[in-house]
Write a structure and sequence with these properties.
single chain, disordered N terminus, 8 helices, mainly alpha
Length: 175
């Protein structure tokens, strides 16, 4: 069995954080699907959501699920500090990070926090202590609304991406 099925034995004491990752990675892998090489997709060749653009030295067509899971853990989940967010935001935020990148997702999160809270935080694309504190009362529906607003902005400013808009909205609604 690979990491996808097993869990992280080396993370004793952090089982709750790791379980959250494993619950969410299964959903992400299912949403992302298998091998696709859409010439209109800015990421280019992808498998399980891992793109050739982001990983030029990875053989995307032969990427295994276990390898994709490790990339998601090491390059997305941990650097995005997802385990430090309230549990009700973790799944949606992880899906955002996978689909929109760490910095853009952090800015969306920060804008959503500013839309909720009287005390404003800096929108800098970096999740630090102020952002984490500001998420304490953030509703997942508000974050979803700000995510969809970003998709609309993207489709309006880059018309060639409009064909993806409906799928993006469906994804945001179910993440």
């Amino acid at each position: 069995m690979g990491v996808y099925e097993e869990g992280f034995d080396r993370h004793k004491g952090n089982e709750e954080k790791i379980m959250s990752f494993y619950q969410e990675i299964k959903k992400v892998i299912d949403r992302e699907g298998g091998y696709v090489n859409d010439p209109d997709d800015p990421g280019g060749e992808t498998k399980y959501g891992i793109s050739k653009k982001a990983y030029p030295n990875v053989d995307i067509e032969n990427l295994t699920v276990d390898d994709a899971v490790e990339l998601y853990k090491d390059d997305y989940w941990l650097p995005a500090k997802i385990e430090r967010l309230p549990i009700n935001l973790q799944g949606q935020y992880f899906d955002m990070v996978v689909n929109q990148g760490i910095a853009k997702s952090a800015k969306i999160l920060q804008r959503a926090c500013n839309g909720k809270n009287k005390e404003k935080i800096k929108v800098d694309g970096k999740v630090g202590p102020n952002t984490i504190k500001a998420t304490a009362r953030l509703e997942s529906d508000r974050l979803r609304a700000y995510r969809i607003m970003e998709y609309a902005r993207l489709a309006l400013t880059r018309p060639e991406l409009e064909k993806y808009y409906y799928g993006w909205v469906k994804r945001a609604m179910h993440a």
